[in-house]
Amino acid sequence: MSVAEKSQKKSGGLGETFSVIIQALLLALVIRTLLFQPFSIPSGSMRPTLLEGDYLFVTKWAYGYSRYSLPFGPNIFSGRIWGSEPKRGDVVVFKFPPDPSVDYIKRVVGLPGDKIQVKDGQLFINGTAVPREKVGQIDNPDITEVDRPVDVYRETLPNGVTYDTLDLTPTSIGDNTREFDVPPGHYFMMGDNRDNSSDSRFTVGFVPAENLVGRANVIFFSIADGASPLEIWTWPSLMRAGRLFHLVH
């Protein structure tokens, strides 16, 4: 084989490798934009449903697509395409309305046109109290973030969706609110950790449909104590094996 032939073969091999890398990156971009996006839980506002150190997949097609479905949220179109409404009780990743560079995750409790209020710690939707039953206590700081037993209440929304909430403080600032009128095209979000959640009762406000990123679907990994999942040597002691591939509801 001549020098020229060897050079051409080497050049062709590099070109094929580069082509494979580009195709893989494009495929990953399409999957992340249209299908699934990985998301890590940044705070304790959704405890006990979601814990810091949970890593989950968000389904991007669940509510259609908006500018925020694309990386960096380019302002190339407004509203949503192929959109569908979230269901009451869905756990949703969305862009923080005052600063869309920040991702939040909360539960949808109010739909457009709803009247939402909290009175003495109980959620009211359109003037009707959401059933709330005390189901016990959790005495596990990994779940509650506090070193004492915490009361757990189970709520059942009008569409039958049930989930557990924490009651860290009997008389917190969020236990009694004004009545909120959810405007058209917006949603009212609340964290399951009711006394430790910045949500639509406070700084989040009403969330525009355009800001929805997707629905939380499944936890694919979970590790305690804020450890990195890349630190494989910590898995035997810190990985929450019971949460792997746990459906979010």
List keywords for this structure.
Umud Fragment, subunit A; single chain; disordered N terminus; Pept_S26A_signal_pept_1_CS; 249 residues; eight-stranded antiparallel sheet; 15 strands; four-stranded antiparallel sheet; Signal peptidase I; globular
How does this model look, in words?
With 249 residues, this protein is of the alpha+beta class. It has a single domain, classed as Umud Fragment, subunit A (Ribbon). Helices cover 16% and strands 31% of the residues. The longest helix has 33 residues. The N terminus is likely disordered.
Short synopsis of the structure:
With 249 residues, the chain is an alpha+beta fold.
SSE inventory with pairings:
Blueprint: H1 3-35, E1 36-40, E2 54-59, E3 91-95, E4 103-110, E5 115-119, E6 122-125, E7 128-129, E8 132-138, H2 141-144, E9 150-156, E10 162-167, E11 180-181, E12 186-190, E13 207-208, E14 212-222, H3 235-238, E15 246-247
Antiparallel strand pairs: 1-2, 2-14, 3-4, 3-14, 4-12, 5-6, 5-11, 6-7, 8-9, 9-10, 12-13, 14-15
